[in-house]
Automatic annotation (TrEMBL):
This is Dihydropteridine reductase. It comes from the Bacteria. The lineage of its organism: Bacteria, Bacillati, Bacillota, Bacilli, Bacillales. InterPro entries: FNR_nucleotide-bd, Riboflavin_synthase-like_b-brl.
Amino acid sequence: MKIYWTKINKIIEETPEVKTYLLDCPEDFTWEEGAHTHFALEGFNAGDKPNRSLIRHMSISTLPHERSIGITTRIREQCSEFKSILRTLEVGNEVAIFKTHSNVPLKREGKNVYLLSSGVGLATFRPLVLDYFERADNVNHIHSLNIDSSRDFLFTNIFASAPDKKFTSQFVDNRHDYYEEVKKLAADKEGFFYVVGSDEFLVQNIEVLREQGMKPEQIMLDKREQQLPNFLSLDLSV
């Protein structure tokens, strides 16, 4: 396993609680849209065993041509040790990234794609949308639906409906409206539904989508292949 130590080159305050940390891109570091990485703070590997409290599994919110590795995360006032340390970091501080992988690249099979996310989960979809804007081959249309009760919606400059690009975007601030919209979107029985958020959020979305007749292969999750059955094999009779 190769560990890349790199420096923070910019910190963007997206909303009062959400920051994007832009990292220098090591020369041989590559990734694709929908990628995630292990993001670690100094000292995580100082002992005999890795200090897991200093490591987090994070989506990369940028594309390679942007020349920075973007990590977008919410940091609340009451937060974990990891987030408390992260909040104090400044431009020039070093962090580590390793074990980078993509579970949710954009499917280009001539169908509609629906991006369902909660809060900062939208960061996973930012590179997919940018990739689609640059090359729309074999994607009919993309629709993004995001729920964020804070109402401080993210990336509104990118997640803005653009009919000429066959892209639509919706933001809602409550669960009732969100799941009503999911049911409407599920009228498309051929589409692909990408879901990003907490495990609880994934389970709830999968239940709604399966009740509307979606097949497991139409539901894309940011999970390793061996984890997928834990979510997609849900018994809907329970």
